[in-house]
Amino acid sequence: MEMETVKYLQILTEEIHSVVVATLNEEGRPETRVIDMMLYDEQGLYFLTARGKSFYRQLMQQGYVSLSGTKAKRAVRVDGKVRNIGHKKLAEIFAHNPYMGKIYPGDTCEVLEVFQLYEGTGEFFDISNPAHIKRGSFVIGKAAEVATGYQVSKACVGCRRCLSVCPQACITMGENDCAHIEDSHCLSCGRCAEVCPVQAIHRPER
């Protein structure tokens, strides 16, 4: 796991901690709840829930979640596969999150089971300085990295229209007078693509 990924998982677990997690309910509609991210390591993210909850059943049936959290104008989102690892890491989770011992004192914690998000993709977004946003993408496990933002093809004619409409001024002219978008500062608003006269700017295929 790359150091950047570890940094983003640390922010998600230690700074944000409580995140919104989405699964599908019995009718196939999105259902969300707030869940604490308890641990992270080079194998992924860890959280837990009780066996009696509908969230538990959905995790066991679907094996996939989408989650997002934000604090102090910094946000992290992750989409990925999850698996039940039982009571493995449960003691470590309670040691790192002592408030859990007050919610589930003594042997009552036996009803909890740990889930690991072991494969997925994520994105970090920082607007603490609104005039100069920062973003980054990352992968967990064997997931394929997903391109984000907008890209400029060789069809660019160098008209420079996109430069004047970018709210973050993150487009510059590069080699052969072709526009270049700095992905780490791009809002993905799409305004550049709208004004391009030759449709040279596009979102990458997923």
From TrEMBL:
Residues 146-176, 177-206 form the 4Fe-4S ferredoxin-type domain. GO terms for molecular function: 4 iron, 4 sulfur cluster binding; metal ion binding. Its cofactor is [4Fe-4S] cluster. Keywords: 4Fe-4S, Iron, Iron-sulfur, Metal-binding. This is 4Fe-4S binding domain protein. It comes from Mitsuokella multacida DSM 20544. InterPro entries: 4Fe4S_Fe-S-bd, 4Fe4S_Fe_S_CS, PSI_iron-sulfur_center, Pyridox_Oxase_N, Split_barrel_FMN-bd. Ferredoxins are iron-sulfur proteins that transfer electrons in a wide variety of metabolic reactions.
